[in-house]
Every structure is written in structure tokens, then in C-alpha cells.
């Protein structure tokens, strides 16, 4: 049995410049990963002008949590030059067993030339090592796009199994050829790609279907609109994962709205390998991954710090060291989108696996 319990939270002051790169403020945190060797956390910012990652130190005294923002490292090309504006939309982050960083990105297909989704390997210094080949179906084709990931709905999630033998990267939404986006009435079918890892080599070995939605329709909106996505994966083993789903629901034609988030336990064992299926919409006879809801963030809102009892744009999640209660620390973070109306919120959970 796997259980999650809320431990503590910490909110970074909006507009914080505790640690700067190119005079940019702290924010846009889309992924977190724990470096056990150095006993530090890394936090990836998806800033389009100067993509970077930060060192973080967590201080939990058994009651309250404090997150210390440390040095920032900018991502750079092989020649040491920084990436240009909108060249990267970094979203997923893992540290490899050989000491480098893997970062997944999303596509920008709003106009030509299209910026494709990528899986990139970087040195700890931030310098690019290589680009890992992707299956062709994850590249945008045509103009207007007719196949591949939707704009800003590419590889949002990335995780490495504890064994180091399997890497999983997940698309936030359904590929264009695989069907419609998640709605209040129907599920979308996202793909999770499994890579086998051997001596630093990454080889795609399987693809699995992750059903996203349908999403419960709120009764507080007369004409609600929905944006839903699979935004993070954390591997517990070679087959079991935690999945973070995020929704934003607003009133059609109006600004603002509400955020929702849920964590699921996912098992890819027994799911159909759809790597040879070009279109899920045209080939519906597949078996998706099994999923079980572990936590609805609505259930912890009353436990959050006074003044911050609301949900934000949660999209990063990572496993850390053991907590005093014997559980593994699970850190979840929100992306403030560099907006003055949002915040970088860190939620600390205790993850326990028993009777297994």
C-alpha cells in the first residue's frame, strides 16, 4: 500500500530576487529533483529568455518548512553561448546515475519555424552534452500542425527509476493524431515513453497510454472552460510511478479561475505497448496504464499556511530524503509563470510504502 500525508508548506515571496541570472527573478519552477550525493535539491525554471536551474536547501524542523534559494546555473549550448529567447521551454528534470542532468522540453508551434519538443542532456555546469533522439510521432509535422504534440503540451514530465535502468518521459496532453484534449465529458490519451538505460545510452523501448480525465464539472461556473494535463511523473520502481495531474478551470470569456491538482499511483505493468501504433484514435483496442488516486489537493487546502489557503499552478514533483516519521519526502512545487498574481509554493509530503 502506498500512502501520502501532508507535512508542511512554504511560499516564496512574489518577485523574489534571492538568486538572479541575467537579472531575472526567481520563478517559473517546473520541476524539482533531489541530488543525494550533494544533499541538495535542484529546481528547474522554464523561463523562455534565460532557462536555468537553481540549487535549493530545505530546512524542515518537524513543524515548519523553509526553502533557501541558492545559486542559479544557466543552460547553455555546447559552445557556451546561452539559448536564445523561446529556444527552450524546459519542463522535466532528472539527475542521471552518471552525474549529468536530463531535461525535457515542450514544443512551440504557434508559428513557423516550429520549436520541437526535446530530450536534452546537460553537464552540471549547464552546458549541453547531447540531444537524445525522440520517436518521430513526438515531432510536430505540417503547418498548421497535423500531427505530433499540441503547442505547449509536449514532454512536461520526466523521471528515472530508482534502479537507473528505465527512464520515463510523458506528454502533457494527447498528440494531435491520438484524439481530443481532456474535457468534462471525455478522457484524453497521453503517451508515456519508456527508455531503457544502459551505460549512459538511452533507447526507446515502449510507449504506454495514460488516460487523463474526464474532469469533474464544477457547479460554481455557468459556462466553464478547462485546461488539463499530465504534468509530472516520479518513478517508485521500474513499473510503478506517481503521476501529478493539474487542471485550470475558468469562466468562458472571463479572466481568472481555479486550480486543481491530484496525485495518482500508476502501474505500467500489463499496459499495451503502443509504440507501433501511429494513431490511438484509429486503433482504440489498447489497455492503458492502471491508476489509483492517492491525493486530491482540495483535501489539504485547510491545512496550508494561513494566508495561502488556495491552490496554485502545481507542476513539479520529486522524491527526497527520509523524514522523521520514516516516510520519503515528496516535494511538490508550483510554477508562478512570473506573474504577480501567482506564487512559487512548495508542499512537502511524506510518502510511505507498506506491506509490499
CATH class: Mainly Beta
pLDDT below 50 for ≥5 consecutive residues: which ranges? Answer: none
Structural class: mainly beta
Residue share in helix: under 10%
Q: Assign an overall shape.
A: globular
SSE pattern: EEEEEEEEEEEEEEEEEEEE
Average of pLDDT: 94
Written account of the structure:
This protein is mostly beta strands and 356 residues long. It has a single domain (2-353), classed as Tachylectin-2, Chain A (5 Propeller), CATH 2.115.10. It contains no helices and 20 strands. It has strands spanning 2-12, 29-35, 40-45, 52-60, 65-74, 90-95, 101-105, 119-122, 128-131, 155-160, 166-171, 188-198, 201-212, 224-235, 240-251, 258-267, 290-296, 314-322, 328-334, 344-353. The strands form five sheets. The protein has a four-stranded antiparallel β-sheet with strand order 1-20-19-18, with no helix packed on it. It has a four-stranded antiparallel β-sheet with strand order 2-3-4-5, with no helix packed on it. The radius of gyration is 19 Å and the shape is globular. The N and C termini lie close together (7 Å). The model has no long low-confidence stretch (mean pLDDT 94).
Amino acid at each position: 500500500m502506498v500512502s501520502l500525508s501532508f507535512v508542511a508548506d512554504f511560499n516564496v515571496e512574489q518577485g523574489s530576487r534571492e538568486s538572479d541570472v541575467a537579472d531575472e527573478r526567481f520563478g517559473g519552477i517546473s520541476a524539482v529533483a533531489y541530488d543525494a550525493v550533494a544533499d541538495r535539491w535542484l529546481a528547474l525554471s522554464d523561463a523562455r529568455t534565460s532557462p536555468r536551474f537553481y540549487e535549493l536547501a530545505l530546512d524542515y524542523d518537524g513543524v515548519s518548512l523553509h526553502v533557501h534559494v541558492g545559486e542559479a546555473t544557466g543552460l547553455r549550448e555546447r559552445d557556451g553561448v546561452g539559448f536564445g529567447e523561446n529556444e527552450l521551454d524546459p519542463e522535466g528534470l532528472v539527475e542521471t546515475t552518471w552525474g549529468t542532468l536530463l531535461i525535457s522540453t515542450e514544443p512551440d508551434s504557434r508559428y513557423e519555424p516550429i520549436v520541437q519538443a526535446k530530450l536534452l542532456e546537460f553537464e552540471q555546469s549547464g552546458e549541453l552534452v547531447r540531444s537524445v533522439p525522440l520517436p518521430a510521432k513526438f515531432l510536430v509535422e505540417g503547418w498548421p500542425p497535423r500531427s505530433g504534440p499540441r503547442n505547449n503540451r509536449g514532454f512536461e514530465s520526466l523521471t528515472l527509476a530508482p534502479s537507473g535502468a528505465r527512464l520515463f518521459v510523458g506528454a502533457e496532453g494527447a498528440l494531435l493524431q491520438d484524439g481530443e484534449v481532456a474535457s468534462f465529458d471525455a478522457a484524453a490519451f497521453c503517451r508515456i515513453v519508456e527508455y531503457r538505460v544502459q551505460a549512459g545510452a538511452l533507447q526507446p523501448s515502449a510507449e504506454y497510454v495514460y488516460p487523463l480525465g474526464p474532469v469533474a464539472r464544477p457547479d460554481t461556473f455557468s459556462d466553464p472552460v478547462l485546461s488539463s494535463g499530465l504534468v509530472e511523473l516520479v518513478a517508485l520502481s521500474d513499473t510503478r510511478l506517481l503521476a501529478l495531474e493539474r487542471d485550470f478551470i475558468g469562466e468562458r470569456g472571463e479572466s481568472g479561475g481555479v486550480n486543481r491538482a491530484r496525485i495518482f499511483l500508476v502501474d505500467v505493468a500489463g499496459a499495451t505497448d503502443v509504440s507501433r501504433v501511429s494513431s490511438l484514435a484509429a486503433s482504440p483496442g489498447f489497455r492503458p496504464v492502471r491508476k489509483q488516486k492517492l491525493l486530491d489537493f482540495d483535501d489539504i487546502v485547510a491545512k496550508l499556511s494561513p494566508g495561502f489557503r488556495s491552490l496554485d499552478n502545481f507542476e513539479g514533483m520529486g522524491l527526497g530524503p527520509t523524514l522523521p516519521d520514516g516516510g520519503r519526502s515528496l516535494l511538490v512545487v508550483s510554477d508562478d509563470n512570473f506573474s504577480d498574481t501567482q506564487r512559487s509554493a512548495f508542499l512537502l509530503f511524506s510518502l510511505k510504502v507498506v506491506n509490499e
